[in-house]
Amino acid sequence: MSQWREKVCVRAWDQSSLHITKASTNVNPYCSKLVTNTLSKASSSNTAVAALWSGDNGNGVRFHLIGDNGTWSSGTGLLTNDEACSGSWHSKSLLLGSLSGTVYSYSTPLDEVRNQVFKDNQPTQIFKHPRPDSVSPMSSRWPTTGKVADIAISPSLPHQFAAAVGCSVHLWDINRSDQQITSHINISDFPILSICWNENSPTFVIGGVSQYLSVVDSRVGNSTWKIDSNSLSSLSRGYSAIRSVDVNPLQSNWIATGGDDGLVKVWDLRSNGTHPVVVLKGHQNCVNDVSWNGRFCDVLASAGADQSVRIWTVRESPSHLLKLCGKESFSSEVVSVTFGLEDSGRSHCIGLSGLGDLISIPVNGEFLQPSLPS
Question: Could you give the CA distance from residue 207 to residue 203 in angstroms, rounded to a whole number?
């Protein structure tokens, strides 16, 4: 990768420093996703997150704020008629993708969420996808369904969003009054599970059942970079799908992936090789989600089915692990992870379990000095 200027100290987390709340007050909720407002994630204001849940009393979203020292302030929420399984939140626009293939757009101003006065449960726009007619070659394990597996608003063009449905990516323009698909991209023969935009270009990254990691130019719909994520046969335990992709917001050439092989891999688009530049091992089951830190370019987090959140650095080898939060904190598998800030600017890693445990883990700045790779 590159030569780093300083050594990183690995520090154990302190159980007393964790702050825990429930993502939903419903009985037996199943939480499927943690969505961070992209503006609050990068600003010095306390981060707002939305937890998607479904339970005996319906489906919905509950908003939470990180307060002083990482404490949680649970605000209002909204109920949805359709079960949401994916989401993206940028500025005032919250998009929820459903199991039925519909995307619902809500107006969610951050000031209303922070002041707990948000009361609008009605979507402002509804985008309906046609049901896929293709059948996945691996239908026995990964059937092709019409659900919106993932959704992402473009950071450079906030009026545009991409939705992964079946084996295709659909591009939409929120500003179009006819609410018609702008572009339909068939990029894979297998279901797509995760999608992430590049912060500085009209390209996005996709990963899924095909095990291929692809960078797609949204203007032409072609793959500009593609690699087999299972090329490391000695590290992969057989066939492995990619469950999550994330583009580093500070170094757009770095892409993190997590999947069924239990490995977190970092890829560099400048490399012509077929191997990841970093492989992070430690999870005992599949990796459900990965997320880069927005302030420290070398720090990322992963959420695992082994009931753990792991915070890593790509500076040093082999001691990549910075922090581990495991079964003593989460009551079930961790389905989603992200980073956020409190008012003071202190960084926190946020993990969400399938049963609604929402935990903030402080990321101590004294040994994580912001720096860019050489």
Answer: 14
